[in-house]
Amino acid sequence: MTDRPMKWAFGIQAQVVLAIILVFSTVLGTMALLLYRQNLMREQVAMVTREAMQGAIVQQLQDRAHDRVVQMADSLTNPFYYFDLESIGKLSESVKGEADVTYVLVYDDKGNIVHDGSGEIAAYGRKMDDPLATAAITAKGPLVQRTPSVMDAAMPIELGEDRLGGVRIGYSLQNANRAVARATASLDEQVETLAARDRNAIALLIAIMPLVALAMAWYMQRRFVRPVMQLAQHAQAMESGRYDVAIAESRRRDEVGALERAFARMSRSVRDHDSQIREIAFTDALTGLPNRRSFLERLDARLMNEDTDGGIALLFIDVDDFKRVNDTMGHEAGDRVLIELSDRFRSAADAMPLRSSEVARLGGDEFVIVIQAREGGPRALSAVASQLAEAMVDAAARPVELADGQRVFLGASIGITLFPGDAVGAVTLIKNGDIAMYQAKTAGKHCYRFYHPSMEQVVERRVRMEHELRTAWERGELTLVYQPVYRLSDRRVLGAEALLRWQHPEYGLVAPSVFIGVAEESGLIEQIGSQVMRAACQDAAHWHLRDDGDEPFFVSVNLSARQLRDEWLPSEVGRILAETGLAPGRLHVELTETAVLDPDVANGPLLDRLREIGVRIWLDDFGTGFSGLNHLRTLTVDGVKIDRSFVADILQDEDDLALTRAVIGMARSLGVVVVAEGIEELGQYELLRDAGCELGQGYWLGQPMVNEDFIRLIED
Length: 716
Known about the structure:
There is one protein chain. The chain is α/β, with parallel strands linked by helices. The chain folds into four domains: 12-54 and 176-281, no CATH class; 79-175, Beta-Lactamase (2-Layer Sandwich), CATH 3.30.450; 292-453, Alpha-Beta Plaits (2-Layer Sandwich), CATH 3.30.70; 463-715, EAL domain (TIM Barrel, Alpha-Beta Barrel), CATH 3.20.20. The chain is built from 23 helices and 21 strands. The strands form four sheets. Strands 13-14-16-17-18-19-20-21 form an eight-stranded mixed β-barrel, surrounded by four helices. A hairpin with a 3-residue loop joins strand 14 and strand 15. Helix 8 packs antiparallel against helix 9.
């Protein structure tokens, strides 16, 4: 029997093979679809993560820019108000030196640049015309704008409701863009690594069986996709400002674990930086106290949420004469004084029987304390506030010992306002405390005053006075009178001191101590001082010269500390002398003791330049500042005027008499002229004359008089 060739039949083996092929094809198609969906999900996750990381980095820089420009605008309020370019420059330069800062622009309310952070202020007065300038100038609050290369933060500078100008800080986005690029590249690389591993795993699953493929898909979902999705969720949370998201330390040793650990480190770094930024934004760096922004936010929350049934008292504290410390001893000594006083204020508050207390530094030499009394009622609160204010005044009056053994004597003026009787909001409460503090200053300093609504009228009157003082000279309300200066040996007139008087049509004769202070604070003293100098020189040029061998009559004019900081002052004085025809030797300029001891004046060329012109320099109010007799040897002056406070008591007070004689003796030994102010009795005149004092002035010798009367006096 012969074998017949077997025909191929569709048997079980073929069915199995076909089933395997079909299953394999199904699994392959399914896995191909799964692979496609997986890749799509990966791309979406990577995109979300990249966007979240970029948003987090940009948002961090934006928050930093926002907080910094708000802090900068707050710090610039007082310097801008007084047009203190030196302080504005220091603040601008310090911010300009920070990381990523490309420019700092301080501008007025019209958009003209006041300072650009450079020493020479090259852009001074230039109109800002960049694409972001219009929005910055008109911004009513913090404004952050972006271009592809720069993030610009702008903030108006305001005093109360008045807009003074603004400040802009530009941050370069190069570092942020590079950080995003590096993070994106790292993310893309790791996602690509994961994708390669996914493809290999899926290929292995396809090779084994659909069940294994499904198991691997589940494994991949659990092992890789979910951790990346969780990281994306964490990134989104950080983007929204929630930096406190807890990310567990990964123990995985693969790329996802490395990504998780890197993300955890980045999260901690961002959280730490946010904490540091918040600490900088809400804490005073010098004293460690809450700053203005922190205090306002906490006070607002306290007034709205906490139990304030018993009321709250706010004490607004301003350190008296603190500027003299910075001017004569330097800002380092001033910082040590502020630290010591802040500790004393905290100790005084802690020693009081209070329900709660909080001390903050608003800026400069201004502090504020908010207290709640243990007992309820406005009367109990007022009593406790008064006791605390007295303790604060006593604490500030104690001398501050400096590291070099020097002692500084200061004081404090305190304004007290109550909630809810005086105000219902934090800003209004602080404003009322400031107004009450100003009244304490007006009352003589070293005291405290409670706020009363009538005080606002006083503030309004001062603002009105400043406005009217700007044009008082043109209206003929400001005039000069001359108080004769006599030679005490024979009571002959040698000259006169020019004194400014303001005859206001509504207020009457305004005291010089009032309007001169307003002129100093507002900066008008520079304009008025120049007008006074010119008018005094014009009058003195017409005083007839002596024909008896004595020197011609001189005129003495007072200069303020602000004028002494003007480098153009000697040139202006020379021009006035040339235009009026007054000989330089007939002009005596009087400088206060504290002004001469200002390092910027004492170490600068201004005094030497005045002396080169031929003008004589007198030191006014000698004995009232920080200096002693030994300064007579170092000060380059032609004369000193003994302050009237010593002359007034020389007949009764042996100490004042001894000091006066010592000044006269040392001045004469150094060839310096001595002038006594405030001679109002015959006994004072005779005692000073016998002590060797050369010149004197006062009501007993001659009262201030108009120019015509003084001419008649010297011609008689």
